Amino acid sequence: MTYYCFLCNDNHNDTSTEEHFIPRSIYGPRDQWLPVCEASNARSNSIFDNVVRDLLYMERFRSTHILKRTGDALLGDGSIRSYKFAFDEPRAIKGGEAFHYFFDKKSNKKIPSNSICAIKFFVGLNKKEQETFCRGIAKISIGALAYLLGKEGVDNKAIKNLFSQTSIDSIRHFALKLPWLGNQVFHRFSLGRSDILSRLQSSCDNPQISNHVIEIIVQDKKTILIEGMLFSKYSWQLNLLNNLSIDSGFFRLENAISKILAPKNLRDLTLSPDSICIINPNYKGRKPTIPLSWRNNK
Questions:
Q1: Helices (H) and strands (E) in the chain, counts
Q2: Are the CB atoms for 79 and 65 separated by under 8 Å?
Q3: DSSP code of 122?
Q4: Whether the Cβ atoms of residue 240 and residue 257 lie closer than 8 Å to each other
Q5: Hey, what long-range contacts does 24-29 have (CB within 8 A, 24 or more apart)?
Q6: How far is residue 92 from each of residues 10, 89, 225, 281, measured CA to CA in Å?
Q7: Whole-number Å distance between alpha carbons of 110 and 101
Q8: Whole-number pLDDT of residue 248
């Protein structure tokens, strides 16, 4: 059976796979998916879906109490190296192995966790993580656009024509990290806008809990405005050109996350570059001196 894949913007006759454009790992609804080709799904997974929980690490920590990040590790000899790590708070409370893996970023080799004295990592997303996040919300945005237009009865042919336009086609290429051969296109993602967060959150059925919201406004057959919010905390705005005859309209997805309470104070995506230092309770050996730059961090 022929199906349309919004990620590669083409029709296929092979077996499709399910693409949850809001990943299941961050509580994307099970019933909100689109058929996509296996190659595009695998590419999307490798770029964003497989790392999304670690990018939105504080939300994952609130639900699992496990923190996965990259940071600087202080070794027993006083040297500092970059590591990927996982911190398990329940194990730490019970006196178990709090850090249950360390990988040296340079060699990608596992290091015994009890050889690490302390770890320091930045709050927020670094430049590379923000780029990955932008690729992810680009995919979420066009996925929601294709999904909602389909729900409104717009056929796949019209959606394919829309996705062939430069503004959306370039965003699709950006989302999948594909080479762009057309004229240079600058993608401007307005991230972490508190006004968007406040407005979207207050419009939800239950503003006391966290929500995923995506709103799409087709304006005068000229522009498509996409505003989104994840976990009632991370927001974005994206403007796309629209030269296709799709009637003006307003489309909205709202998915409540009943497991997670809404933040008392809505925070921006671009958090301050403060850092956190965690002492390893399972460290074995002579403790080196904690650097002065680490001591004022909690």
A1: 9, 14
A2: no
A3: E
A4: no
A5: 25/49, 25/52, 25/53, 26/52, 26/53, 26/56, 26/59, 26/212, 26/230, 26/231, 27/212, 27/255, 27/257, 27/259, 27/260, 28/212, 28/255, 29/255
A6: 50, 5, 46, 8
A7: 7
A8: 64
Strands 190-191 and 17-19, by their bridges, are unpaired
Over residues 42-53, the pLDDT tens digits come to: 999 999 999 898
Q: Are 62 and 209 contacting, i.e. CB atoms less than 8 angstroms apart?
A: no
Query: Which single residue is written with the structure tokens 């921006």?
Result: 268
Q: Report pLDDT for 60.
A: 79
Beta carbons of 212 and 230 less than 8 angstroms apart? yes
Q: What are phi and psi of 273, to 5 degrees?
A: -80, 40
Q: Pseudo-torsion of CA 40, 223, 219, 255, nearest 10°?
A: 30
Burial class (CB in 10 A: 0-12, 13-18, 19+), 21: buried
Tokens 């996705």 identify what position?
163
The reported pLDDT for the residue numbered 73 is 94
pLDDT confidence of residue 296:
61
Give me the residues of the chain with pLDDT under 50, please. 271, 298
pTM of the model: 0.85
- What is the DSSP secondary structure assignment for residue 153, as one 8-state letter? T
Question: Among candidates 194, 258, 238, 246, which has minimal Cα distance to 222?
Answer: 246
Residue 225 CA to residue 240 CA, distance in Å, equals 6
Cα distance between residue 298 and residue 294, in whole Å:
9
What lies within 8 Å, CB to CB, of 153 at 6+ separation is none
What are the backbone angles phi and psi of residue 244, rounded to the nearest 5°? -100, 150
Measured CA to CA, the distance from residue 292 to residue 298 in angstroms comes to 13
- Could you tell me if 203 and 250 are in contact, meaning their C-beta atoms sit under 8 angstroms apart? no
